[in-house]
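Narrative summary of target 7.
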Amino acid sequence: MATPSHARPSENLRSAHGAHQATKSSANFHGIDFNCTDGTPEAPTTKDFDPAETQDEIIKWFGSHPDGEAPALRLIVAKLPCPHSDRTSWKPEIPFRQDILEYAIWQHSAYTNLLPSRGGGCAALLDEPVCFVLQTPVDLGPFCSLAMSKRGIVVKGIFLYRASLSADGEAYFDPLRMMENETVISGWRSTGMQIIALPIAVAKSHALYITRELDDLASMLSTIEAELSSHTIGTRTEALTPLTRTLQTTTSRLLAAERRINFQTSLLSAIETVTSSHKRNTPTWPPLAPLKNNLESWSHDLSTIPRRVSAAQGTIQTLIQHHNEALNLDIATSSHRMMEAALKDNATMKTIAIMTMIFLPSTAVASFFSMGMFDWGASGGRGGAEGQVVSKWLWIFFVIAVPLTGLVIGLWWVWLKRHERRIGRMVGDGSAGDGGVGTEAAGGARTMSDDGFRDEVEMERFCAGGKANDFR
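Modeled conformation, tokenized:
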């Protein structure tokens, strides 16, 4: 007996999917009889089951003998609906009662153990009667599951399938379409070798899906590579976001394809197990060489596609890095220009201050001696007040001017200290998580209060947060 490569032991027979599972209106049931294809081939005969019929009618038909001249396979087929929401969490369920499952395969635990496995699996049970079970991986692609065993000269079983959840929604595992070109030799019925006909058809359809999936992934990568080759260093990062998402989707689909390739390898191995055990009594059987050749081609794709994905991701990271470097260079250039402009403004202010210092003393002297307190035309030879150049009321000017000047300077000093403390608090609060930038800014403000309006302090305060300008 060949053990399933992906099947896991079950603690129970999952009877919840047996007697308590009534016929679901969401599943489409029908029966199919496949006849031998040599001699005078007969077309398959089908029987549709009314949803209102009980599963007693299904088991009654299932247990009867086919009416054809050379019947080979009898299947109960259930087409499962595609979920409209939460597609990634979809799990297969057996829509048949336990007695139907037990009639389809003697050792039904080998089949029910496959259901929890999202990776799928298969097994060829060679004890009499010969049995075959398989289940494809559960993902967004097409799905099928079957359990068959030899009943006299006829193989009977159940077959579940679901269309792909991808955009095309193609039903790869429709049994009537799969078996159209398959060979079923009448001499196989004595040994039950016709049991491999449907698994081989499944393997061919599954190989077609894998090939199309890998070709689609390769085409997507070619498109991404062409787009990346047309991008320059100045490309905005927003334009690269769709490419990154496509690469993530490609990686997920590639992992799903790799899991299906592993299942395909196990399926071909299980088929070979059956054919090798009946080789002496079997006149001919379909060759598996073309399907094995696909494995070599897929192996090449599995090795090259990840490298192409990594290369594309590296190119995107390089473009993003170059873009950030160019952006940082622009910021540095703008900062340098702002600094030059600030220094030019400071130079202008210095020039104004110097010119003020040059002319202010003479202006003050001229203003002082031009007051009415001085009479430069008075005669110095006369006695009395009439001959005095300086008025006796000159002291009033000093009494008012000196205190007023001190008051103005004092108010300015108080306002300056409060202003510096506010700046220090705001810069410190805004830079608490930046390693003490606020403390350095406050220190810079203190230096300014001690040394005056120096250019270095102004630039330090500007770079610390740019908030000082709000208070000027």
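Confidence is low (pLDDT under 50) at residues 1-25, 434-472.
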